[in-house]
Amino acid sequence: MKTTSWMVGTLAAALAGLWAAAAPAQTKVTVAMSGWTGFAPITLAKETGIFKKNGIEVEIKKMPTSNRHQAMAAGEVQAITTTVDTHILYASSGVDVTQVLVLDSSHGGDGIVVRDAINSVADLKGKQVAVQYGGVPQFWLAYVLKKNGQSINDVTSVNLQPSDAANAFVAGQFDAAVTYEPYLSKVREAKGKILVTSDQTPGVIIDTLAFQPDYIKKNPKVVQAFVDSWFEALDAIKKDEKKSFEIMGRDVNQTPEQFAESAKFVRWYDKSGNQEYLTKTMPTFLKEVQDVMLEAKLIRKAPPSLDGMVDASFVK
Predict the structure, then answer these.
(1) Hey, which bits of 172-211 come out as E strands?
(2) pLDDT recorded at residue 203
(3) Which end of the chain is least crowded, N or C, by CB within 10 Å?
(4) CB-based contact 103:39 (threshold 8 Å)
């Protein structure tokens, strides 16, 4: 039977429709984050095609913590990775966020570095401290000072990003500085004195992934794909740690060996860890963090609701 051109065109169109229906929808998600070691599995998921396999295209935007909620409010990013305290800061400033995934906790990955003459937290009184405002360094400094009978007003703080704070301290500036990995390793390598690390305040520096509530309602499959990709990235690290460390280290200008050293101070949360933390620990921890931030005047008012700041359904 002779096939006419219009039949060929119709058949091609039909097949194209079938292929399009069968192919997974590629939905772009832009996530705002930093070069913190704890976030590195997101880079791994992007570079190894895990996100793409799960039907989403992820763009990573590196930006300071203080700019991430503004970018979200402007629609420039759809997801933010940062600490629980910073999410509270965002929510208190009018940018609603809902945390759907625990990424990591710091176990020595954050530190307060000091000059040799400083031997205790009490010795920080009246000293000049380089610390990033509006992010976990400032919150954690306030937390440590409070636990030692002081307040953040007892020190003279200077606003510097964690990388700049580490570099400035190694160069001989400031009495103390607050920084985190991989920048804390620069201080370790320079034989700098570390007064306190996050290993001494377990469970306080916790990073999570958050979207805005409306975005979650409209795009639950995208959110689920992102969460699933995180767990797959952790599996990939277990299967080939050397290759994974090479990819993740490259993103922050570290060799695989240097990245491995940084990773020793971080705990990544798998599915069971997420289920435990989001359902049992998070509600109480949110209240504790909020109280510290209010007392230290890191926020002027409490968020409208702490309950709406967590959605554990994507890790079940």
Answers:
(1) 176-180, 193-197, 206-211
(2) 86
(3) N
(4) yes
